[in-house]
Amino acid sequence: AGYVVHANSNWIHRALAAHLAAEGSARRLTAPYASGVSGTVPAGSYFLPGLGAAEAEAMARTHGVTLTAIETTPESALPVRMPRVAIYRSWVGAMPEGWTRWVLDQYGFEYQNVWDDDVRGGALSDFDVLIVPAQGEDAIRDGHRSGDMPERYVGGLGEAGTAAIRSFVEQGGRVVAFDQAVDYAIETFGLPFRNVIRGVSTQEFFLPGSIVRLEVADGHPLTWGVRPDAMALFARSQVLERTRDGGDVASAAVCYAGSDYLVSGWVLGGDTYLAGRTAAAQVSVGEGDVVLLAFSPHFRGQPRNTFKLLFNALMGASTEGLQSGEGLQCR
After folding, report:
1. pLDDT tens-place values along the chain, 331 residues long
2. How is residue 43 annotated by DSSP?
3. Cα torsion angle, 90, 96, 102, 103, sign
4. For 171-320, where are the alpha helices, taking DSSP H only?
5. Are residues 87 and 111 in contact, defined by beta-carbon separation less than 8 angstroms?
6. Who contacts 51 (Cβ-Cβ below 8 Å, separation ≥6)?
7. Which of 121, 171, 255, 284 could be cross-linked to 215 through a Cys-Cys bond (beta carbons 3.0 to 4.6 Å apart)?
8. CA gyration radius, the chain
9. Helix count (H) and strand count (E) of the chain?
10. What is the DSSP letter of 145?
11. Secondary structure element (H or E) that encloses residue 239, with its range
């Protein structure tokens, strides 16, 4: 019937983008597929119907990915295309916005920057997903103060921009906010989470740049292809906690490990503020949803181990009929 590209490589997205650009089609497996010839193909893999052996060999050789021939079309496979990605770009320059562009460039994702005026003017209607890079809530909402910069660079999204983002999600869009930007997303959408360490003194909790262990939900669409023993770089990042029962509309895809969480480096107050708490979550809002990533999964373009959390968040926005998976019970 075709080939599946396994979900265990970041490079599948560059391979997929090239395949779709050549007018191929793709579907994404939402459940494992038992192949009589090749064994079990994991959920999150991409099925390329009608792909021939020579094309599959060329893709494997060019992109360094693993492909498996399968006999029938998997029942769980949903139509997918490359997402239309917008990256919010503030006049208050944020270095993580640059990391995001660089990483997407490397792995085959096309995107456009949207500025404050673009968002307020309705530009989000052209996209499937909006990335809000790591940046403080005040900088996103208010930007530079009048008198500090030339007038064209003054102000942030403001109430009009925030209202436009709400409307975008309620009508079926997705927002992906990471690290400091989770505060803006929580406030904007009234999400059932809080940032545990917001306002906490560095004398109570301090983790300036250490590697921590994660607990990853098995089978959640945000974690497809992510190793179960994944680790993250926590560099003054955030920690989430459920504030109320969100029912089926909220799920925690990743928790910080409840014990033995420090892999390398040091931490102050980790048992109280970090251990076992939520690191990544997905919350439905209207027809769309919001993905919260409490740390930067692509910090300075280096921790390839967690790139898939960002990539899955993007691809989920363009997978037809994809539902949120069952989450973890984080602390």
Report:
1. 999 998 889 999 999 999 999 999 999 999 999 877 668 889 999 999 999 999 999 999 999 999 999 989 999 999 999 999 999 999 998 999 999 999 999 999 999 999 999 999 999 999 999 999 999 999 999 999 888 899 889 999 999 999 999 999 999 999 999 999 999 999 999 999 999 999 999 999 999 999 999 999 998 999 999 998 899 999 999 999 999 875 658 999 999 999 999 999 999 999 999 999 999 999 999 999 999 999 999 999 999 999 999 999 999 999 999 998 889 999 9
2. T
3. negative
4. 182-189, 270-273, 307-315
5. yes
6. 2, 3, 19, 24, 59, 67
7. 255
8. 20
9. 9, 19
10. P
11. none
Q: Report the predicted TM-score, pTM, of the whole model to 2 decimal places.
A: 0.96
Interior CA angle at 220 toward 12 and 260, to 5°? 100
Please report, for residues 112, 197, 207, the alpha-carbon distance to residue 328 in angstroms, rounded to integers and kept in the order given: 33, 21, 24
Q: Output the six-digit token pair for 239.
A: 């920690």
Backbone angles phi, psi at 288, to 5 degrees: -115, -160
211 burial (CB, 10 Å; 0-12 / 13-18 / 19+) is middle
Smallest CA-to-CA distance from 189 within 209, 174, 210 is with 174
Q: Which residues pair with 85 in a beta bridge?
A: 111, 129
CA distance 119 to 116: 5
| CA 13 – CA 253 distance, rounded (Å) | 21
Measured distance CA(314)–CA(127) in Å, rounded: 11
Q: Are 203 and 197 in contact (CB under 8 A)?
A: no
CB of 330 closer than 8 Å to CB of 255:
yes
What is the spatial distance between Cα 310 and Cα 296, in angstroms, rounded to a whole number? 9
Distance between start and end Cα atoms, the chain: 44
Q: Supply 213's token pair.
A: 């262990």
